[in-house]
Design goal:
By secondary structure, the chain is an alpha+beta fold. It folds into two domains: 274 residues, FAD/NAD(P)-binding domain; 153 residues, Elongation Factor Tu (Ef-tu), domain 3. The protein contains twelve helices and 17 strands. A hairpin with a 2-residue loop joins strand 16 and strand 17. The protein starts with 7 loop residues before the first strand and ends with a helix. 46% of the residues are buried.
């Protein structure tokens, strides 16, 4: 029996691709799901199974009352997510986290996908997109094959596809001590005609600088995976501790140089400065400029909290450096995840610059719904920005700064600020997180009735 609609092609059988395919098929639209394994394996995958978890078996916190990823779990349940449904079915004891038996989870997802009458699985590598494919979702993840990666590079620009994350830590603005730091651009310059206060500056005197360098050099480091070892550093993403090892004052002539800056509190000239730059349009997140690192996470928190002004810093993301393929989504994608220069292509999952299993699946879910609405020629209304799905979507399609875009997990720093009470105050601490969570889940529930 012929289908009423031509198929939508989904490239990639990971979490995002499977979720996108399932959402499309659930709208009675045929899907062809392309997965290159086992014809072509990757350096990280061990099986040919769909939705294979290549790293941890954890989907992180399942607390939907005060944790952003837990809120995302709950929203995905409301939206009928295949990935969360299978995770719930194959979960293993993990305290407050949602962790799964990885083999049973992969098998559960593949069973549903393979049995669906509107989904066809094709096991072959896709290196380019035929003109006859009028709707395509690219969900190939951080280990996109070289052939397809080169095609993506050709569609975009030479600098809009990254193969290596150089991740600087990101700090919640409201955890920074503004009694110590000050706002100032070097030499009071601003690139957009602003007030010359584009950066937050953390001052260090000589003893503080000396101690900081020693901590960087002696802190425990993460190791590269075997398949990352041959990817060399380049100047733009050199770990901060590697720079420090090249000479005691190297950082003072690099990302920590104090020239052109005067402490706004006492007019003194600092020995060294650590700068933070706004990382999202809301101004709730700031990244530590030039501070990509291979320090272990616990070491990053310990060492970076010795920086004046960051003693109580809360991190939306910690630093890292690892192989990863992702596009500059804020520059390349429109509000519906379509490639601006080729609007028949959508991107989904980790290749869009979200980090984590759940975030990847959530963007796959949205891309699937968007593609289905396109095929049905029905109106698409995006999820509200105060939901976890809406916050992620807004971040990667314009909320993040394109010039410093790096992969990001979901966190409350991506959400619009909470309203103030009659006294002009907002909730703090756990009450703040609970308020974000409650607002998001209620908002998503209203939106889901029309999705």
């Amino acid at each position: 029996m012929s289908q009423p609609y031509p198929p939508i092609h989904v490239i990639g059988g990971g979490l995002a691709g499977c979720e996108a395919a399932f959402q499309i098929a659930s709208k009675n639209i045929p899907v062809i799901l392309h997965e290159m394994r086992p014809q072509r394996m990757t350096d990280a995958h061990q099986t040919q199974g769909l939705a294979e978890l290549v790293c941890s078996n954890s989907f992180r916190s399942d607390d939907s009352t005060a944790n952003a990823v837990g809120v995302l779990h709950e929203e995905m349940r409301q939206l009928g997510s295949l990935i969360i449904r299978c995770a719930d079915r194959e979960k293993v004891p993990a305290g407050g986290a949602l962790a799964v038996d990885r083999e049973r989870f992969s098998a559960a997802v593949e069973t549903v996908i393979a049995a669906h009458p509107l989904i066809t699985i094709k096991r072959a590598e896709v290196t380019t997109i035929p003109d006859s494919w009028d709707q395509v979702i690219v969900a190939t993840g951080p280990l996109t094959s070289p052939g397809l990666a080169e095609s993506i590079r050709a569609w975009g620009g030479e600098d809009d596809l990254a193969f290596f994350d150089a991740i600087a830590p990101i700090v919640h603005f409201d955890s920074i001590n503004t009694d110590i730091v000050w706002f100032q651009s070097r030499y009071d310059k601003s690139t957009d005609g602003g007030d010359g206060k584009d950066y937050i500056n953390c001052p260090l005197n000589k003893p503080q600088y000396d101690n900081f360098i020693e901590a960087l050099l002696t802190g425990e480091k993460m190791q590269f995976k075997d398949w990352e070892e041959n990817t060399p550093y380049f100047d733009g993403c050199m770990p901060i501790e590697v720079m420090a090892s090249r000479g005691h004052d190297t950082l003072r002539w690099g990302p920590m140089k104090p020239v052109g800056l005067t402490n706004g509190h006492d007019q003194s000239r600092p020995h060294a400065v650590i700068q933070l730059r706004q990382d999202n349009a809301l101004g709730t997140l700031y990244n530590m400029v030039g501070f990509q690192t291979k320090l272990k996470y616990t070491e990053q928190i310990r060492i970076f909290r010795t920086i004046p002004g960051l003693e109580q810093a809360e991190f939306a993301r910690l630093g890292g450096l690892h192989r990863n393929t992702f596009i500059n989504a804020p520059r390349l994608l429109d509000a519906q995840l379509r490639f601006k220069s080729r609007p028949n292509l959508r991107f989904a999952g980790q290749i869009t610059g979200v980090e984590g299993y759940v975030e990847s699946a959530a963007i796959g879910l949205l891309a699937g719904l968007m593609a289905a609405h396109d095929r049905l020629q029905s109106r698409w209304t995006p999820p509200p920005a105060d939901t976890a799905h809406g916050a992620l979507l807004t971040h990667i399609t314009g909320g993040a700064m394109a010039d410093s875009f790096q992969p990001m997990n979901v966190n409350f720093g991506l959400f619009p600020e909470l309203p103030t009470d009659q006294r002009g105050r907002r909730p703090r601490g756990r009450d703040r997180k609970a308020a974000y969570a409650k607002r998001a889940i209620e908002s998503l529930g209203r939106w889901a009735r029309t999705a």
